[in-house]
Design brief:
0% helix, 47% strand, mainly beta, four-stranded antiparallel β-sheet, single chain, seven-stranded mixed β-sheet
Length: 123
């Protein structure tokens, strides 16, 4: 079992920055790839970024160059640094964990989810 807890959401003006963190616990959390998804009202859950066990990283086209995924000093926490935020980035952001997800971009491929954190970009 893996438990995930997100933090760091909030309200920010367009062009601003936020940092989201996802802390994992459980005996086997290090065996999982870690990803971020987001879901806006009335839309499907959308892939944002992934960092795999070997530190390979990939971000979605819609956020590339603005969002960065990395681990902090402790291996159990993954960070999503979000810069140059736009109103279209407004959503609930979820972190997820999966073992070798067959489809990186599909929420169905991930076994564990955090509770979500709201990000609102508005002036």
């Amino acid at each position: 079992q893996v438990q995930l807890v997100e933090s760091g959401g909030g309200l920010v003006q367009p062009g601003g920055s936020l940092r989201l963190s996802c802390a994992a616990s459980g005996r086997t959390f290090y065996m999982y790839d870690r990803a971020w998804f987001r879901q806006a009202p009335g839309k499907e859950r959308e892939f944002v970024a992934i960092i795999k066990r070997d530190d390979y990283r990939y971000t979605a086209d819609s956020v590339r160059g603005r969002f960065t995924i990395f681990r902090n000093n402790t291996a159990n926490t993954v960070v999503l640094q979000m810069n140059s935020l736009k109103p279209d980035d407004t959503a609930v952001y979820y972190c997820a964990a999966g073992r070798d997800p067959p489809n990186t971009f599909s929420a169905r491929s991930y076994n564990y989810w955090g509770q979500g954190t709201q990000v609102t970009v508005s002036s």
